[in-house]
Structures are given as C-alpha cells and as structure tokens.
Amino acid sequence: MRVTSSLWVSALIRRAEAAGAFAMVLHRGAAEAGAIFIVVNDLNDQIALYGPAPQTDYSLDSPSERQFECVLDAASDDDLKQKIARERSFDPEIWVIEIEDRQGRSFIE
Predict the structure, then answer these.
(1) Cβ atoms < 10 Å from Cβ of 38
(2) Which of 36, 43, 47 is nearest to 11 (CA)?
(3) Class assignment of domain 5-100?
(4) Among 13, 40, 44, 103, which one is most buried in terms of CB atoms within 10 A?
C-alpha cells in the first residue's frame, strides 16, 4: 500500500531539515495521490528537478515505492518555471517541493 502524497512530502521535508537543508512546499497538490516534483537548489546556481519515474521503471518487488528521475539538471530558473508550468497545465494537482541544500542532495533515495 502506497502512503499518501501529503504524508510522503511531510517525511521528505523532515528528512531534509534533519540533515541541515531547508525544504518547503511551493505548490500543494492532491493530498491522496498527487504527483510530486522536487526542485533541488544547491544555492550556487545549480538547479535540478526530479519528477515521477515512468511506470516501466517500477520493480515487481516494490511496486508501491515512489521512484523519481531527474527531469532537468543544471537548469536555469526560467527553464524550471516553464517546466513546472507545463506540468501544472497538464495536472493542476501536482506537488512542487523545493529543497535548498549546499550539497545538492535530493533526499529521495
């Protein structure tokens, strides 16, 4: 059974903050099953965006675990805004979380 998106996001924020990073919700999506996108900003002009992995990437051993792939790497702020706007136009119920971490960690492993 997969945990709700809101619970998963809360856990991600706690995990990031416990490790010394700053994390915040930029856009709150559907509490039960909204797709989650994670912006990782290393505070040195390096921004990455992680989004849900395609269903073909899921393993039969753990089909309920959330998996992510890097959608944008070393992106500009404008590229990031455009990508998120496209995703929100397709699905307005997505979550967007931003993590600011000087080491560039995503905390999604």
Answers:
(1) 23
(2) 36
(3) alpha beta
(4) 40
